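Ticket reopened. Same input as before:
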Amino acid sequence: MSPARAHATLASPLARRPRRLRVTWVRSFAGVGRVVADLARRAADVSGALLLLTVLSPVWIIRGAIGLAHQEALIEHDRRIGRFREPFRLLRFSGTGIGRGLPVLVNILRGDMSFAGPRPMTQQEADAIPPDGLVRFAVRPGLVSRHTLQKRTGIAHDAEVSADREHYYEQTLRGDLGLVARSIPATILGNRDEIAAPPFLDFFGVTIVNTTMDEAIDWIQARAADRDRTPSQIAFVNPDCLNIAHAHEEYRAVLQGSDRVLPDGIGIHVGCRLLGTPLKENVNGTDLFPRLCERAAQTGQSIYLLGARPGLAMATADAMQAKYPGLAIAGARHGYFTQEQEQDVIDDINASGASILLVAFGVPRQELWLAKTRDRLHIPVQMGVGGLFDFYSGRIARAPQWLRELGMEWSWRLLQEPGRMWRRYLVGNWVFLYRVWKQSRRSPAPHAQGAS
Ligand code: UDP
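Engineering reply: fixed in the latest deploy. New output:
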């Protein structure tokens, strides 16, 4: 059954909460394959929960003894909405301390929850789910969900509803096991919700805006609509860029003079963790680009693509126009031109009337070029995007989603171009972390004030 038809079939009974919803799901929607997969998943959940309960039994004994000594109730619970919108009690130990959430294993044994699945919601949250997201209630809520994992690694750019929907349609036992495995490092290294994120981050004197993908796109769109077409320069920085900025005074000055510097990649995330400051989101250019195209197709703002090898900017333009009908590409041109041809390039960009210019020459060449030509280019938004067109033209494949969720996209790049990338990642990552560690000893948190 196609996902669209499946939505229609399942969303309406899920919305009405019929008494025989389980039967409806099995008979009219799931099919034998899904029911068998469901049983296999259940068997894996029960075995995993029994194993963990056995291994972690000392924690139960210690927590039980503490509860008895303090004459407190051992277990507390919260009301949550489970599969088929049935309410259940989400269990945990009373008080604070290690292993507080352990009783959730009992929820898994009882079948209220799975190891992997959409986040268990409160009644209020469940009532707010739109009809196209109700399919999340056709599976058991999970201890770890795709959206919570992406939040921890800073790449939750899409709404929870769509992550849950994807989980439902793409769910396999292997996928669930992978999700659980990926959640372990993410839980240890990832964002903590309880600490407030500062508006700016500072790494070695470079001020980065601590923002979300949606807010960054709103900002770009607002600047692109500027009637005076006042140029704004945007840069993305990852650990490699910050290492370059550390040694390259001119590049550092350009970043400091940019209107917005955005945090790109897991390295900034890890750097923030070392400094004890939460990063709101990993606003990298590769994830921002399709969202920017989608928005531009709606607003009519046109985009000019400059850079990469001959043919790649045009191939990128074609791919994005096919994906976002109505997207206006003002021009596309490769990034290998001589000093003598530069004025031609600038004239062509200006004549195109583009609202947004993406320059893909690599770091720091693109930032230096934009800073030099900024006032001759009458384009309101000008941004350096590195190897972006290599990905979107299809020349280089992007890392699969599971590797990105692990924060290991860099290892994919390393395997693709080891000769060029080994120094950047195998040496550069450690140099960056060492510098962050040194900075953390001078000032504990990377809060910067007064940046615009
Ligand atoms: N490039 C270019 N003109 C040049 C040098 C490089 O257009 O004179 C392009 C190159 O083809 C590639 C991009 O710039 O598409 C640099 O990619 P890289 O992955 O190195 O970017 P970064 O890692 O700096 O984001």
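Confidence is low (pLDDT under 50) at residues 446-452. Residues 307-309, 335-336, 360-363, 386-387, 389-390 surround uridine-5'-diphosphate (CB under 6 Å). Please confirm and we'll close it.
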